[in-house]
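This part of the workshop introduces the protein records we will be handling. Backbone structure tokens are a discrete shorthand for how the chain folds in space. Once this layout is familiar, the rest of the handout is easier to follow. The record below serves as our worked example for the rest of this section.
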Amino acid sequence: MGVVASLEPPIAAAPEDALTRLIALVEDDLQACNQAIVARMHSPVALIPQLAAHIVAAGGKRIRPLLTLAAARMCGYAGDRHIQLAACVEFIHTATLLHDDVVDESLLRRGLASANAVFGNKASVLVGDFLFARSFQLMVEDGSLRVLEILSCASATISEGEVLQLVTQNDLSTDEARYLDVIKGKTAALFAAACQVGAVVAARPPAEEQALASYGMNLGIAFQLVDDALDYAADQATLGKTVGDDFREGKITLPILAAYAAGDEAEREFWRRTIETLDQTEADLDHAMELIARHGAIALTLARAADFAAQAKADLAMFPASALKDTLAAVADYTVSRLR
């Protein structure tokens, strides 16, 4: 018997929280999606549902499947294909989390011990592979070549984004455009696909498909920009992972690039030592955060995130007024407000 995780998404305490409103608008669909996830996590190999349940039970806002459910309903879809596709999107995302934590040697995920810390790297990689395989089974069962094209391309793009991040790691010559290519691939591509398939199942015209894909892409970029800022501006309880992980791994993110560009030669030498050669002392993270604050790098990163969130809201313009449209626009604002 496998372990069955509780898949009820966390509800934020503040009633104005856009995600809370979005969950309320698609509550029945989300419950059906959660049931599909539980059913598809089952395997006679007990370790698979145990490990999968561990990461799913850690929580998370389940933004990506929510986007699929909301996009489909906003487009007037009245069927149930979007339920399985939302589960598919969540499996892709969860698989990437399992693999990322192994690559990054992360010990925490959403404030709890990561799956690789509990079960080991080998099990995490293999169960991640299982979840990817499950996602492709769901795509095939849907029967739409267009859906298969969108989600399979997104899966490949995610992997490309992760490899590009590996290539740019420890390289301070990386520019903002290259950095944005990384986050478009590793994060925003799945946001875009999650939204676009909602229009596909509703048989909406290509212009609406592309508008929703663009909304998801811009939302995903804003989301990742804020996540990258949080690594230098949040406490560990808020962040849900070890603060400063990006710094310790030498990841190139916008707060680093902005502080490096604005710094004097002594500061740049600090960044070259700590990021490019990973020659770090215990005091270096505090100094890095001091330099980032000194040069307003967090504010700059949030301003860029706000630009992408504003574009995401503009992408919804062609859709008729509805509670779902208003709430999806509010989700873009919420994404940036996580660090306000």
